[in-house]
Description:
This protein has two domains: 2-140, 3-Layer(aba) Sandwich (Rossmann fold), CATH 3.40.50; 143-303, L-2-Hydroxyisocaproate Dehydrogenase, Chain A, domain 2 (Alpha-Beta Complex), CATH 3.90.110. It is built from nine helices and 14 strands. The chain is 46% helix and 21% strand. It has helices spanning 10-22, 35-49, 62-65, 90-106, 120-131, 143-158, 195-216, 221-235, 279-306, and strands at residues 2-6, 27-31, 56-59, 70-73, 112-115, 138-140, 165-166, 169-171, 177-179, 185-186, 189-190, 240-249, 255-265, 268-272. The strands form four sheets. The chain has a six-stranded parallel beta sheet. Strands 7-10-11 form a three-stranded antiparallel beta sheet, covered by helices on one side. Strands 12-13-14 form a three-stranded antiparallel beta sheet. Strand 10 and strand 11 form a beta hairpin. The longest helix is centred in the C-terminal third of the chain and has 28 residues, at 279-306. The protein is an alpha/beta fold.
Amino acid sequence: MKVSIIGVGTLGSCIAYELAVKGIVDELVLVDIAMDIVEGHAYDILQAVAIRGKPRIRVGDYSDVYGSDVVVVAAGKPRTKDTPSRMQLAEDNAKIIAGIARRLLDHKVESTFITLTNPVDVMNYLLYRMMGLPRYRFIGCGCQLDSARLRIIVSEEYSLPLDEIEGYVIGEHGEHQVPLFSMVKVGGKPFSIPVEHRAKIQSRLVNFALEVIRRKGATVYGPAHHTVELIESIVFDQKKLFCCSAVIDVDGLGDISIGVPVIVGRGGVVEVLGWGLAGEERSAFIKAAKTLYGYERRILEAVAEEY
């Protein structure tokens, strides 16, 4: 199995390292415009796995991406403490993603893509539209991380064991994320979160990433680990449940990349799960979909005008 990572900065290199030490791929190709840095990462990671001798790790260009089973796209302008909304990165990062897509098309790359560049939903949609491949091959890694954060918050707010909590977040990986309070479980049993507590939990959830960014400059280990779990599910056809951004039709709006529960296996999204949302959760999800529809169409139009 071959995985390529485009954008080997702090996050991309962490993904590469975890993939390498877990030994779940045969070949790892690292692509970045900063050659000294990416070569340094490649040699550093290689020294971690050299005694085992697997995987093969090399720095490459877009021609080397051809034949990859999975391509991780982590290039772009990162979020900082001065970027309260991921959408503030949309215009700058759209230009980067469009440039990557053009190079991938030049080399006829037809892989499964995992998008990490923010805003994740918008960039995943842009990559999908520019590549012209089936929608199931495009996955945005965002809501799985939000789901992990929800579990941490519930654990802290109610002094509950973290490993007993089940909780999911869908919608936008951003301000319009939708925590599914109706589906929270503790020890396998439904756990009722009082309505008066939900606004506080939602606020913590939306701002969780910024709390990490203010302290250490970036969120790294969380998104890296969840990305590697996605890759494992694809490579080994595990058909595991993830909440992640997938391209679907929501409420007749047309194609939108938005966080939903999916089964991920060989080739990408195997199934989109139809969790029956009702009441405020359904309303919040439709609001997120309409918001993303507007952003995704505007960015696509802007890129089309430029390219």
